[in-house]
Amino acid sequence: MVKTFRNRTIVKIIDYWRDLWAIGYLGGVAHWDLETYMPVKGAKVRGEAMARALGVRQKMFLNKGFIALIHKAEREKNLNDYEKGIVRVLLRDLKFYEKLPAEFLKNFERLTNEATVVWRNAKEGNDFKLFQPYLTKIFEMNRKATDYLGYRDSPYDALLDQFEEGLTSREVEIFFNEIRDPLKNLLSEIMSSDKHNKSQLMERLVYSREKLVNLNQKILKLFWSDFERFRLDISSHPFTTSFANTDTRITTWYHKADFARSLLATIHEFGHALYDLQSSDGLEMTPIAGGSSLVIHESQSRFWENFIGRSEDFVKAHLIDFKGLSPEVGSYIRKFGKDGVLSYFNKVSPGFLRVEADEVTYHFHIMLRYEIEKGLIEGVLKVKDLPEIWRAKMKEYLGITPKTDRDGVLQDIHWSGGMVGYFPTYSLGTFLGAQWESQIKNSKLKINNYEGIKTWLRNHIHQYGSTYTLAELLKKNNMKFDPDVNLKYLQEKYSKIYQLPSNN
Description:
Helices cover 62% and strands 3% of the residues.
């Protein structure tokens, strides 16, 4: 046992827990395969296998001897931070497994395995009705889960807590109320600017898929050279999976045109991966290995996407690479230069897709999803009405209406996997990412010093894995969550780009 864990009870817990870890590890591989290379007709059988594996894991977790060890450790004095982290994480897991019936968990696993494939087909065919019965059942089961888990105010709080420990809808709404008007005002100023263009020519320019695949690989190797611990694949929706800090995988997607769609998605997922890759070796095969809070996780992905991928230094460094993506792209860059590409990467304009939204409009995508999820869980909204509700909220928040459900209610993978309550962590994480950037800048590190930035992130965040909650990690870094940091950054950045009056 590594020196990180000295308490005898904790050592016994880890020894037992490693069998649970092994089942979870193999389940993670199966889920990755489900979303990448598994034949579509394998979903039902895969769901059954995963449901039974989950049942075995729950039964093992609820072993009376193991539960006794967890509670014994809870009472122990003089635990170090890592040992306290293990107790905290296991107590949360214990609550989950004790309160949710085995058959319920198995049925949910079966449902989401099938739903993932159905969603993929529904999205490709722009057929919401194909996915509707699965989505209806997913929300019904999530509502039932909130009854099992318990909550104080809104049932939605029980789901938020699964993705960000202790987060409540009240806190989410306070945050959204704080940022909504400043973002609306900034967007209005940008849209009224003489420098604003609703469309960008680069978005319509085709590229060579083979060359962009190679460029994604090149940039990832620049960020992280050890590809014996890391890989990039393709999926219908970009995601990250980490089985260990020696096996972390990301996916991206490719389209006929608009190369930034793939490139920024790749960089976003790398931010997630780095968190797990730089988790301390001493935490591997323990309950606190890998990234902790979803808000912290999204702060990493959004930091790399926004502050690295959209930066002038990054664009300048890869201008020649971009030119080589196709004759059309090359011609554009020769005509408009670095500033033209920088404008393309940082264009602010309402769009249909969350994952490709700019830094200003992104949060309106999250707000509408939050309102829809909460309404469905509280029984105010119905799944069958979602396409129309989605269009109405897009019109309300962004002044645009998607013509297809593919670009509307079917665009995200999360609900097909049963993940209700995840979306608010994207906005919270984005705002936290701006605070990390501010801290890094105060450390005199330049944004193109990737090695220095990785070291800073490892020392301040990544090495601890899941040892600390969000509040504890912020305290350890002498920080408090402060939305004003990102609001100020956005105002300054886009006032300069769009030459807004407030910047003159």
